[in-house]
Amino acid sequence: MKKLLITLFVILISHTALADGKNEGITCLNNDQWVKAQWGDRSNSNRSQWFQATKSAPGNPANSGFDTGCMGRCGEGCGSDNGAGFYTKDCMDHDACAFYDSEFGGAFDRDCGDEWRQAADDFSFGQACRLGSK
Ligand SMILES: [Ca+2]
Ligand SMILES: [Ca+2]
Fold it and tell me: pLDDT tens digit string along 95-133?
């Protein structure tokens, strides 16, 4: 119940915050699907880049603490279950943003907080987008 209330609160503020990119509801991704991630950083410039869902992002992230595995999965990296989880467009947008974010931090991150909030519904209610472990 507490998790649900927090989620509803986050969804509420996601509609009032200035958002670059946009909340695409809960849009499922498939194994190995190429996705054009869209996000904005703190300068509010719109950015986009193609990434392959369920694969690792190529190259080195801005913050070495960022787990580049399983792009598009809601939650950090591939998680404890070897990549099983919900894969959605909004979670991909957040992963792409976080890849370039040197100081990322959840819902109130200056660069990726809006992407995080847009992905909160996916994270909580995205069970239709669940893919198995690889
Ligand atoms: Ca969403
Ligand atoms: Ca942003």
Answer: 999 999 988 788 999 999 999 999 999 999 999 999 998
Q: Ligand 2 centre from 21 Cα, in Å?
A: 7
Sign of CA dihedral 63, 64, 65, 66: positive
Q: What are phi and psi of 28, to 5 degrees?
A: -70, 150
- Distance spanning both ends of the chain, measured CA to CA: 32
- Cα dihedral sign, 99-68-20-37: positive
Where in the chain are the domains? 2-131
pLDDT of residue 40: 94
- Which residues fall inside 5 Å of ion ligand 2, going by CB? 20, 40, 114
User: What pLDDT is attached to residue 7?
Assistant: 63
Q: How far is C-alpha 89 from the chain's CA centre?
A: 7
For tokens 């999965």, name the residue.
73
